[in-house]
From TrEMBL:
GO terms for molecular function: tRNA (guanine(46)-N7)-methyltransferase activity. Belongs to the class I-like SAM-binding methyltransferase superfamily. TrmB family. Substrate binds at K145, D177, T212, K213, F214, E215. PROSITE patterns: SAM_MT_TRMB. It is an enzyme of class 2 (transferase). S-adenosyl-L-methionine binds at E66, E91, D118, D141. HAMAP family: tRNA_methyltr_TrmB. This is tRNA (guanine-N(7)-)-methyltransferase.
């Protein structure tokens, strides 16, 4: 039987992100030139099979994957606050990853690695089942128009894929400030048999999660942010 990380590459007709420009500031370019070769990899350029995180980080430690790190303003703080974790950020936007590397450098963190590309390809082809201690998706594009809802990242097939990659007891932490998307996230995750809600509905906002610029904007626009914390159960 073929293992999940040996599946052939697949191509989705609908993706959850928009291709953006790649022009970088001088500081971002310098950070990229200094750190990318050692700390970054392109998902499309990864060799077949699983990423050997223990070799890449030079140590064995729990692996946390953040999907969509944006410009890295909160990601860098989360990495710095968890030196005992091997923190991996996957993002399609090159200047965002460069900015994250710049912020990480300023904080002196050593436990960050970054991947540029599609998280679905990464999870499907390069992360074996039961590998991750945590997955974090904070304020993904809400695609608010109904005709665009199919482009939302949090869909049943994707959540099932995430659940299979979590180790038993591993956590999936989602946050959004769009109420309808929050309801969709709750419904989709609650329907996944591999996951168990750690709370009765919404999770209390964890104090350790920094306020993102999107969350601050939501406060200013009177939108309420919702956190969800699900745990991989023992079912196979």
């Amino acid at each position: 039987m073929t293992s999940s990380h040996q599946r052939p590459q697949h191509h989705r007709s609908v993706v959850s992100y928009v291709q953006r420009g790649e022009r970088m500031t001088v500081g971002q370019q310098r950070a990229w030139d200094r750190h990318w070769e050692r700390l970054g990899q392109e998902v499309k350029a990864l060799p077949a099979g699983p990423v050997r995180f223990d070799e890449w980080f030079g140590r064995e430690a729990p692996v946390v994957l953040e999907i969509g790190s944006g410009m890295g303003e909160t990601t860098a703080q989360l990495v710095a606050a968890a030196p005992d974790v091997n923190y991996v950020a996957v993002e399609v936007y090159k200047p965002g990853l460069a900015q994250l590397l710049l912020r990480a450098e300023a904080l002196g963190v050593t436990n960050l690695r970054v991947l540029r590309g599609d998280a679905v390809d990464l999870l499907t082809d390069h992360i074996p089942p039961g590998t991750l201690s945590g997955v974090r998706i904070y304020f993904p594009d809400p695609w608010p128009k109904k005709k665009h809802h199919k482009r939302r990242l949090v869909q049943p097939e994707f959540v099932h894929l995430l659940a299979t990659r979590l180790r038993p007891g591993g956590t999936l932490h989602l946050a959004t400030d769009w109420e309808q998307y929050a309801d969709q996230m709750l419904a989709v995750c609650s329907a996944e048999p591999l996951l168990r809600n750690q709370h009765d509905g919404w999770a209390p906002r964890p104090e350790w999660r920094p306020v993102t610029k999107f969350e601050q904007r939501a406060v200013e626009e009177d939108r309420i942010s919702h956190d969800l914390m699900f745990e991989r159960n023992e079912l196979t």
